[in-house]
Amino acid sequence: MRVFVTGGTGLIGSAVVAELLGNGHTVLALTRSDASAQAAEAAGAEPLRGGLADLDVLRSGAAQADGVIHLAFGNDFSSPEALAQNVAEETAALTTLGEGLVGSDRPLVTVSGTPWIPGRASTEADPVPTDGPVGGRSRTVTAVLGLASRGVRSTSVRMPRTVHNEGAGGFAGLLTNIARQSRISGYPGDGTQRWPAVHALDAAVLFRLALEQAEAGTAWHAVADEGDKVRDIAAVIGRRLGLPVESVPEETYGPLGPIFKADQPSSSTRTRQALGWEPKHPSLLEDLENIQP
């Protein structure tokens, strides 16, 4: 397939582009800058200049492709307003991409987070929460899956709280960055809450499988580690950086504080069985050993 990919030069996107190219697909990658365009070309993809707010560019990219994988999302988590702006921008972009594929039976693979269910690991059958700091994102993804009734093979790959590679990425990466700044490797609450995780290279395989195989209107879990305790994550970060490991106020993490504090293990049993996905790369706690002091 010729696949239009948004966010194709980020931590996850670069792995997805490599996975697609390594399995016989070609890639048209949305790129916001000269540097991103050069990175896409170096990886073997064709760049298409523009950002998520450039809706005409998105229409053009979707029209040129046999399928779409959407990964791009704003990186500003500094305030509730910034997060809301990220969600609004993505909503407009996904609406545009989806409308461009109506009636074509082409695949549209998008991304959301794994849900959290009190007392147990979430599964692919559980709905994503539509309230909270990123509830708008879940509502948008739900609408995209609804395009299955309009001739779009829409699917969603639900990502865990940490997608990692070489010690970087995801919520664990945010913990590391905050630890470097504050000189404390912190965690909210008592740290027994669990975060699911996946290596970026394993997640990339699942995006390809969803593009190639998944039925319309389905959701899948890119979960390798069902749930690592946050204080265990902080302990590795603290040891690697030579910092004390302590509980810190939830407010330390701004608008993401309530999410950081939640216990949210997740299962990928159905995904593994239905799509034949099997994670092979290092676990989160193993990968965090790559953090450089």
TrEMBL record:
Q: Where is this region: Disordered?
A: 114-137, 256-293
Signal peptide interval: none
Reading the lineage from the top rank, the first entry is Bacteria
Which Gene3D superfamilies does this UniProt record tie to the protein? Answer: NAD(P)-binding Rossmann-like Domain
| InterPro entries, A to Z | Epimerase_deHydtase, NAD(P)-bd_dom_sf, NAD(P)-dependent_oxidoreduct
- One matching Pfam family is Epimerase
- Domain (NAD-dependent epimerase/dehydratase) spans 3-218
Q: What is this protein called?
A: SDR family oxidoreductase
Organism whose genome encodes this protein: Streptomyces milbemycinicus
Q: Which lineage?
A: Bacteria, Bacillati, Actinomycetota, Actinomycetes, Kitasatosporales
